[in-house]
Amino acid sequence: MATIHDVAQQAGVSVTTVSRVLNNRGYISEATRKKVFETMDALNYQPNEIARSLLRKQSNIIGLIIPNVSHPFFSELASQVEYYAYENGCKVLLCNSQLDPAKERDYIEMLKRNRVDGIIMGSHTLEVEEYVSLRSPIVTIDRRIGEKIPFISSDNYRGGVLATELLIRKGCRKLAHICGNLELDLLANSRSEGFRDTADKHGIEHMTIQTDMNVFDQEQYARIIQELLDQHPDVDGIFATSDIIAAFAVKGCVKIGRRVPDEMRIIGYDDVSAAAWLTPAITTVQQPIAEIGRLAVELIRRQLDGEPYEVDNTLPVELIERATT
């Protein structure tokens, strides 16, 4: 296996020059840079990334912990984080916690051992203290865990208001909101507050139905929808806290012959790609997923470079009306 000394000898330069080329430090002529890279290719030289990271005190690796990689929102978020990390010269270590505290803790320990530059937390199973004690820069998605730790969230309350106002404008007179378990300390709970406040403001009868603590367990969605339609046949508008739940609501209505949107109007949240692919296409509150991914990487970089940053990064949402309303 070729070493940095072999590269320097064959390229006719010093080991220091090769090191500068690898770490992009100091002035190196383009001709010398080209010669070093050509020699590395010829010798199939692979730099020791661990040694380089110890030297630079940066690994150019960002850890991303999400609760469920198969969930469309988190898979699209992971794609955006990877894209912007790569644009900034970083790689991503993807960790799928599956809402398992032990697994999430193992992943955090792995990320610490690999000296990642920062951690983007999209899963929040552990206690706040376990995040705060980490020395790496942290960015959280949809949860606030400290006064100095930056978080990113869509304007959840505004999203709940927009969805509920549209259902009311469309003539709905009994509304149901299906959401995750509100005992979880998530900023997404504000969607439910926006729904409730808007329905109360307009004097519209309404109810909120929560999932169990395993909020990503899709098997329960069909049961929840079926029970809602059986027990409250006069419900004519549903605001779901995700596009996935909204899709189950459409499916449940089709199963019993309730026409969407003539007899039931349905709104989701996120605007994942599948929301537009389904028939009927789902009306939804759009989170700026690409901007969330870009900003998460940017906030890690700002912390690494000692630059100022905002702790509260609440991004605007937009109502995308499609066929379900």
Give the topology:
Elements: H1 4-11, H2 15-23, H3 30-43, H4 49-56, E1 61-66, H5 72-87, E2 91-96, H6 101-113, E3 118-121, H7 128-132, E4 138-141, E5 151-154, H8 156-169, E6 174-179, H9 190-201, E7 205-210, H10 219-231, E8 237-240, H11 243-256, E9 265-270, H12 273-277, E10 283-286, H13 289-304, E11 312-315, E12 318-320
Parallel strand pairs: 1-2, 1-3, 3-4, 4-5, 5-11, 6-7, 6-8, 8-9, 9-10
Antiparallel strand pairs: 10-12
Helix pairs in contact: 1-2, 1-3, 5-13, 8-9, 10-11
State the CATH class of the largest domain: Alpha Beta
Helix content: 40-55%
SS strand fraction = 15-25%
**Oligomeric status of the shown chains?**
single chain
Order of helices and strands: HHHHEHEHEHEEHEHEHEHEHEHEE
Overview in brief:
This protein has helices at 4-11, 15-23, 30-43, 49-56, 72-87, 101-113, 128-132, 156-169, 190-201, 219-231, 243-256, 273-277, 289-304, and strands at residues 61-66, 91-96, 118-121, 138-141, 151-154, 174-179, 205-210, 237-240, 265-270, 283-286, 312-315, 318-320. The chain has 325 residues and is α/β, with parallel strands linked by helices. It folds into three domains: 4-47, Orthogonal Bundle (434 Repressor (Amino-terminal Domain)), CATH 1.10.260.40; 61-154 and 289-314, Rossmann fold; 156-288, Response regulator (Rossmann fold, 3-Layer(aba) Sandwich).
